[in-house]
Design a protein that fits this description.
Pathway: Amino-acid biosynthesis; L-valine biosynthesis; L-valine from pyruvate: step 1/4; Amino-acid biosynthesis; L-isoleucine biosynthesis; L-isoleucine from 2-oxobutanoate: step 1/4. InterPro entries: Acetalactate_synth_ssu, Acetolactate_synth/TF_NikR_C, Acetolactate_synth_ssu_C, ACT-like_dom_sf, ACT_dom, AHAS_ACT, AHAS_small-like_ACT. It is an enzyme of class 2 (transferase). The chain has four helices and eight strands; from the N terminus they run βαββαββαββαβ. The chain has a four-stranded antiparallel beta sheet, covered by helices on one side. It has a four-stranded antiparallel beta sheet with strand order 6-7-5-8. The chain is elongated. It folds into two domains: about 25-100, 2-Layer Sandwich (Alpha-Beta Plaits); about 110-185, 2-Layer Sandwich (Alpha-Beta Plaits). The termini are far apart. Strand 2 (about 55-65) and strand 3 form a beta hairpin. By secondary structure, the protein is an alpha+beta fold.
């Protein structure tokens, strides 16, 4: 076997480390955006992402102040640190946007998601689905002789794990709300 040819001026990395040290890692970030609750604002925010080819992994929107007519948009996206900084800067320039918070870098935060799972099955599969639902603290919100609808709340990882376990037991359909997130502690 010929010796490994290392060019002059290159750093010595393990042959098993196939990552390019010059490429920034892609990171997952949760952004909380406070906006005016008016027609077209969500379309402008989404347009910013789609127009530049950024992906949205999760998007939730709800009015949070009825008197002040403001809504909170929670966006989970991925990108290099430079891309995330660019997204935050561009969001901040949209006129009806009041605040942009990157919960991922601003400190500890709490993220939760609600999901509904329809699982169809009989016999042992039905019993196993109920047993796993109990372990995951999922609630049965509808039941027929052939199926259940489970409601589960938790981190996206918990919801994903529950989905994976329900798949062989007759998972028929999933509905997920997307991420709701808040910074921990007294800061807002």
């Amino acid at each position: 076997m010929p010796p490994l040819n290392i060019q002059k001026g290159t750093s010595r990395h393990s042959a098993y480390d196939l990552r390019d040290p010059n490429i920034e890692a892609v990171e997952r970030h949760t952004l909380a955006v406070l906006v005016d609750n008016e027609a077209g604002v969500l379309a402008r925010v989404i347009g910013l992402f789609s127009g530049r080819g950024y992906n949205i992994d999760s998007l939730t929107v709800a009015e949070v102040d009825h008197e002040g007519h403001t809504s909170r948009i929670t966006i989970v996206t991925t990108g290099t640190p430079a891309v995330i900084d660019q997204i935050k800067a561009q969001l901040g320039r949209i006129v009806p946007v009041h605040e942009v918070h990157d919960l991922t870098v601003e400190g500890p935060s709490v993220e939760r998601e609600l999901a509904l799972f329809k699982v169809s099955g009989t016999g042992d599969k039905r019993v196993e689905a109920l047993r796993l639902a109990d372990i995951f603290r999922a609630n049965v919100v509808d039941s027929t002789l052939e199926s259940f609808i489970f409601e589960i709340t938790g981190t996206p990882q918990k919801v994903d794990a529950f989905a994976e376990l329900m798949q062989p037991l007759g998972l028929v359909e999933i509905a997920r709300t997307g991420i709701a997130a808040l910074a921990r502690g007294g800061a807002g």
